[in-house]
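2024-03-11 09:14:02 INFO receiving multi-entity request
2024-03-11 09:14:02 INFO entity count = four
2024-03-11 09:14:03 INFO echoing inputs for audit
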Amino acid sequence: MYLNEFDATMKHIQGKWKIMIMYELYERKVVRFNELQRYIASISPKTLTNQLKEMEKDGLIKRVVYPVVPPHVEYSLTPKGDSLIPVLNVICNWGLSVIPSDQLQRTLCDE
Amino acid sequence: MYLNEFDATMKHIQGKWKIMIMYELYERKVVRFNELQRYIASISPKTLTNQLKEMEKDGLIKRVVYPVVPPHVEYSLTPKGDSLIPVLNVICNWGLSVIPSDQLQRTLCDE
DNA sequence: CTGAATCCCCTCTGATACTG
DNA sequence: CAGTATCAGAGGGGATTCAG
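2024-03-11 09:21:47 INFO inference complete, emitting structure
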């Protein structure tokens, strides 16, 4: 089977919210579960959990649990997650070139 | 909503076989339906049709019909499709960096 | 040869309620 | 606060058959 590398990358970024999660972690460095849920307005806790678990398993993000009450969990990008950011920018910039400018609302490219 | 550009690009490359189709068209320049079906061994005609239609609608590929019997249809990349190739290479190369080298069978990156 | 039509399955995601 | 449990829906893709 061909295209292993392509699929390898795609597996990391497939998932409706992963890029948005990456973006939030990239911007804010350290974010809690509840914050992600608020920033990404329409995501359900179940889906957020799923995406975070996959990303953690893929080595893109780090999950740190503080054993306190109430629970406190922090998510952040790993170096591997950081290394994916430039790739996302390339993807984003190509998209920029194919969207009619009057449909652009806000760009995250090159931020 | 954010991330318009990213989603715009992703819409173009999402679909289980689109990258493989892109790759075949990039390598062979002009390919017929039946050839694609053979090159991409396990794709069903229905799925192949779907992917080609979407890609044509997205402007990535060009479809030329010769009104003869039996039918003769040729597919090729458009300039827009060509412009996506470097993006695919970036994606592919990142994947190359995260796959253990002993799992690599064949690379399409930088070809 | 190039698809279209049909049926089936399966994964992903959403909505909601609940727990330690 | 940070999830888990459960139910449900939509869409993508596979297998097969048929048509112009």
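2024-03-11 09:21:48 INFO post-check: Residues 32-34, 37, 45-46, 48-49, 65, 69-73 of chain B lie near DNA strand C (CB under 10 Å from a C1').
2024-03-11 09:21:48 INFO post-check: Chain B has a mean pLDDT of 91.
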